[in-house]
Amino acid sequence: MSGVTRNPNFAKLAGGYLFPEIGRRRNAYLAANPDMASRIISLGIGDTTLPIPEHILGGLVTSASKLGTKEGYSGYGAEQGMGSLRAKIADKLYGGLIKDSEVFVSDGAKCDIMRIQQVFGSDVTTAVQVSEVNIRIKYYTHTLAILFTSLQLNLLSLTNFVKTISCQDPSYPVYVDTSVMMGQTGNINPDTKQYENIVYMPCTAENDFFPDIENIPRADIVYFCSPNNPTGAAATKEQLELLVKVCKERGSILVFDAAYAPFIRSPGVPKSIFEIEGAREVAIECNSFSKYAGFTGVRLGWVVVPDELSFADGSKVRDDFNRVMTTAFNGASNIVQGGGLACLDDEGLAEIDNLIDYYMENAKLLKDAMTSIGYSVYGGTDAPYVFVKLPDGKGSWDAFTEILEKAQVVTIPGAGFGPGGDGYLRLSAFAPRDTVIEACDRLKKTMVLPVAV
Ligand SMILES: Cc1ncc(COP(=O)(O)O)c(C=O)c1O
């Protein structure tokens, strides 16, 4: 055992991260039923399955080959990304709504969310002061350190948190889990399954998956994802206008996750928060090539931090984000950025459209199959996720287990995305077409509802 005190924020985390937990349950099922291994179909984690198309692949290959030549070799690049890629993102994906200098290219949106959290910090003043005492005492004796660790934990639960965060419930688990790691929250309430100091914004079928934002308490940082993972709901222009207006009136910063923007097919639905007037003063946007171009393993994303966005003391959020990127990140891979440039050529954009058409056809098949056996189904029109309402009283982990055992199909329980997701299941449309067809067939045979919900 070392003499180092565990970061108490990690002890607050309820269980492991969602997707490894799904894998663990699937493996446990297969260990008990090894003959089912070849039957398993995954509609679980939102991981792309189609190969990277030719033009985009060419971009990756060319930039990799250049590294083998004297003239083409490059080492460390700018931490904010290649100028040419930043300019192309601003031009092709934002049509001039943002400036090149506001784009920070990265290794993906998940890591960016943690880096954004680092900019905000924990602001848990009391806890930080107690930690300092703890470190000094620990210097003298290990036993006293342990005593003070428990004192620190007790004081933490009495702490007045000065910074609050808010997120959709259900939502991509990274917003909540990174907030817990950063020390922005209290403990989880075992009854409500909610962390203290997080303002949960319920988004379910009852409110058409958009929160009653004006009647929800203020938070400093508001996380909002559209199209949403897991519900598949894409907020309309009017809804986003209201969101921006409320954040502006309350002096909140909006962190807008647009990782599924290219899946939007409904006319008039914004693909970026910067399509909304006034958003430049309130919002940061994170985005990713993962789902655009099958780059989940390649790793490339970006964050837009507009110049106008500032903290209460007038300092620019952009400057602090730049400080994090230059200190704790060393730039996205030069090979991968070559792939990103190819994505944004006309040929690359056309290839992305084809990939997305394929996944959206899968979503339609899943949606039609579940509707045909009596379920109410949401999402799947502007997002690669189909969100299925379960019969009243049916827990989503129970439904997950039942479908795994009866149909050998892996899904994701809505409760894994927050307490508001219980009673729903998420089906991912990223599986290969033949397996989607087979999964639809098995679900239709095994999951028929006696009464439609
Ligand atoms: C809403 C949302 N944001 C971000 C990410 C992570 O993206 P990346 O692969 O760029 O880390 C995901 C991945 O599933 C996601 O669902």
Any overview of this molecule?
With 453 residues, the chain is α/β, with parallel strands linked by helices. The chain folds into three domains: 8-51 and 348-446, Alpha-Beta Complex (Aspartate Aminotransferase, domain 1), CATH 3.90.1150; 83-129 and 156-345, 3-Layer(aba) Sandwich (Aspartate Aminotransferase, domain 2), CATH 3.40.640.10; 130-155, no CATH class. The protein is built from 15 helices and 15 strands. The protein has helices spanning 8-12, 18-32, 54-66, 83-93, 109-120, 125-140, 142-158, 174-182, 237-250, 290-293, 317-328, 334-343, 346-372, 396-407, 433-446; strands at residues 41-42, 103-106, 165-169, 188-189, 194-195, 198-202, 221-225, 253-257, 283-288, 301-304, 377-379, 385-389, 409-410, 412-413, 424-428. It has a seven-stranded mixed β-sheet, with helices on both faces. The chain has a four-stranded antiparallel β-sheet with strand order 11-12-15-14. Helix 3 packs antiparallel against helix 12. Residues 124-159 have low confidence and may be disordered. The site of pyridoxal-5'-phosphate has 13 residues, from helix 5.
